[in-house]
Fold these 2 entries.
Entry 1:
Amino acid sequence: MTAADLYTQAVLDHYRSPRNFGELPGYTHAAEGHNPLCGDRLNIQLRASGGQVSAMRFRGEACAIATATASMLSELAVGRDLHALADLAERFGQLVAGDLEQDPSLMELNAMRELAYHPVRRKCALLAFATLSAALGGASAASTEGIVE
Amino acid sequence: MSAVPNIAVAQPFDPMQYRPDFPVLARRIHGKPLIYFDSANTAQKPTVVVDAVARYYREYTANVARAVHTLGEEATAAYEAVRDKLARFINAPRDEVVFTSGTTNAINLVAYSFALPRLRPGDEILITAMEHHANIVPWQLVCERTGAKIKVAPINDKGELIVERFMELLTPSVKLAGVVHVSNVLGTLNPVRDLAKACRARGIPLLVDGSQAAPHIPIDVQAIGCDFYAFTGHKLFGPTGTGALWARREWLQAMPPFFGGGEMIKTVSFEKTTFADPPHKFEAGTPNIAGFIGLGAAVDYIESIGRERIAGYERELLGYATERLKSVQGLRLFGEAREKAAVLSFLIDGIHAHDLATLLDHEGVAVRSGHHCAHPLMQFFGVPATARASLAFYNTRDEVDEFVTAIGRVRKLLQ
């Protein structure tokens, strides 16, 4: 297990050039996610109707893991509905806990499988999902403190 | 006083002499030698400490002050001897040293037994902007219950306490002041003697949080002149779950007990219970006997090396580490007080503290990243988190060099 196993080219790429980074004009849902332990902040804005996400953008100051996850998620979320996203979130949770090896539906997020060996960093990756979930649920804020592993 | 000359003073301090006492330092992390730069989080323990704890459990396990049999006498003697050691360590009478589970416990004791009964609505507690949560939250809890308020003395950009402002804030409404001796984030060494003098002049009791000071510099509570001094054993190369509160006898006698139970009593009946004299009045229940025996061994070990020598070496190492870190492009240092301990908080442009720490771990380097239990301080510097390297006398210049090289590798990867 080396640093390169977690900070892969894919992760570093998404960190340095995050996809869908910025504000989303005409957003319908939004939430601010915060990891009080390390200070990561993610602000997610969505356009969604009928429970289906048509666009997602995010901003914030966060570590490479949190940022890369948010970036990867922003590409995956488009075109998916609440149900599919909840499913994805659950599978991602299992992946980072080491309970799942790889899952094709998680696409680039499979890179976070290495977090199975870095339990303290898991919350960094879970922040994006928690924030997205909060936004879709109508809440305006999410915190990693509410996440039960 | 011994007539034997202190030869040790003449020899330059060599950490390699002491590193073998800490077998963990020989570990390899991710295939690289461990470079433990996180002693401010918890210190490594020398073999004598581990042995002392094990010996208690192997050879004379018994409860203290509760049995007249041989094992009980042995355990009690070993345990109470530590009180004498701690008292000498800080230059205090033994009955003014209350054993606690650490600094946090000690400060809470003062909050509940000293502050809570005394504070009235409108009263104030003065602390500083560089405090650890342990010297903030207990006061907040007490203020909530009494209607008192917290006042915060500001710091400057270098992480130094603005002493004039602290003095100005010592108004008649202040009923207690709390100050950290050495900041765990900035390394700043506060002028506690001057602050204590000002507090005494105004009749304001002062509590000093000595968690990061006790491991690094000689402590003399008489010379400092404060009213309460708290410190913790696990940062002092001793076991976790140990620590002490020193407090002036007049306060300890006036303070009601904090925890109630066995040991802190003289007599108990369902009608009336009388309490033991301090310090035992504040030591309810069976204590962390093995832990304190280990702490005693830690204090002996440190004293055998010499705290002045340790302080001198760390000052040199800090100077070297600071100079090397300042040469790293894009590195920002937090806390550059004129007087500071070997604690270096830093960030590198564009790199999050957690990523720094995780990648440094892969280079064998252990630093802490996060808010270091000092949210308000992070807010002051406008950063969500920092990475922190904290050095002890078992660290070397070679380790500092390797640390800087590792930072270079991390930068290349992330920038």
Entry 2:
Amino acid sequence: MSQVIPPMADEKYGTPAQIMALPQERLIAILREPGASVYAKAKACQRLAVVGDKRAVPALAALLADPQLSHYARFGLEPNPDPSADDALRTALGKVKGKLLAGVVNSIAQRKDIRALEALAKLRQDEDREVALAADAAMARIRPPQ
Amino acid sequence: MKDKPVSRRRILKTAVQAGALAAAPQIIPGSALGLNGAVPPSGRVTLGGLGIGSRGTSVLRSFLSESDVQFLAICDVRNERRETIKTLADQQYGNHDCAMYSDQEELWARKDIDAVLIATGDRWHALLSITTARSGKDVYCEKPCSMTIAESRALADTFQRLGRIYQAGTQRRNGPNFVRAFELVRSGKLGKLQTLHAEAGPGERWAPLTTHDWLPAEPEPAKQVCDWDRWLGPSPWRPYNSQYVQGRWRGYFDFHGGGILEWGSHTADLCQWAGDVDGTAPVEYEPEGMGGITPYSIRCRYANGLRLVLRDKGFLGLGSCHIRWEGDAGWVETADSGKIEVSANLRGERIEVSPEEARRATANHVRDFINCVKSRKQPRSNALAAGQAHIACHAVYIAFQLGRKLTFDPATDTFVGSDEANRMRSRAMREPWRI
């Protein structure tokens, strides 16, 4: 019989189930709290993917350059129906590099943000091959060949 | 010791390069000529493997037992597994030729490989299937085949667009007892089909809901022992814990679709097949029994009025993976024991399938795939059928997560009137992965 290992819990915010039961305002506050753990912030992002609205976008956008939380921020932003999520991702194109930039490009592609096409065209020439390939794929997805 | 097998692609390439072969006499192995019952290279399907664990090894054994298949390479993030699969293949062929890779790009670059067996964890299935197809290879992939509705649609669309062959590891479509039940439906002897019942995850272990928990962090092993970053792949980052890589990744939202996807990918899939609704999904989903506590059920309805019920209780005890199909003139029920029960008026139609015969499902399914790789026809669990069945299962899973009735438009893969449900149709992939 394998040993059952108890899952992690955040000292301040408790289990993922407890964190994810919080209302949007509290989830945003976790993202803004400098001392909150990666664990708590990750779970807040995942819940905001389902319940976050325009108010969640700035707090999620602020994490796009964080190596540990950038993907979680995109996890929260990508399905957000508010157009400010597009603005946030587009703005991040000029702020992040390498893998994180490729991730932001991929999220822009998922959202089919036509206003990003010009910036993506430039990124096709990026010296980072991963970024250039992501930009290529994003352009094809947003504006597929006729 | 057997003659060293020569791949179909390699011998054809060599023949071309040699310009109708040199005139000097040559000693050619019997296996290369198709002598002594051996299949010549031109008739062999060459295979690679991605992420082969316990279930994958079982499927791989079925491939290895086929004389017209040659397994050439294994790619896995775990060194231990690479070595195990290489040993298995090399023993089968009596050589040392099975190549080992930890990066799938190296496997895709092998132009001499026709098809790939994918048996990683679920988080990788759709992404690897699609990228493998783009590399020009056919795919046999274990189930569940996707993590989301969006991945399921991308899977179906990609294989259709590229003309590659895809077989989902839903082997019961080639299980003799399930085929017999299917034939009864299609014969019309059940009358007009009314309700399709699918067993979905019996017991608490297979509850419909998953958890967002993380296990405590452990020191990461060296990359060559286990590449944790690559193991996670497109899933959200979390700290390493050896439990995950030892196979205990099920039940976590980031890696798994719970009992619904684990078992519904078989049983709901069979129901879609029997109901002749492989090209669509139900339009209504009404869950009963919530909070991950069993027993539970969910009632679904197709646009044509046909009903699909996924439930974890109330079957006849014929083994795992029950299906029960009810028409207005009779019913049939079967499961993994191979036993088939029918309504009293159909007793003469009941044909027993022995447990041994029932266990041939995977071997039959593998054979179906190999035949289709050669003929370019569609196998039973092709990408469209599997994609649609998975869309249905994901819609069920989302209805359970939200705990309310949902309406779905299969033509657009959108939920009607539920913003939350629509936001759960896809998940951002971790960088740099994308479909």
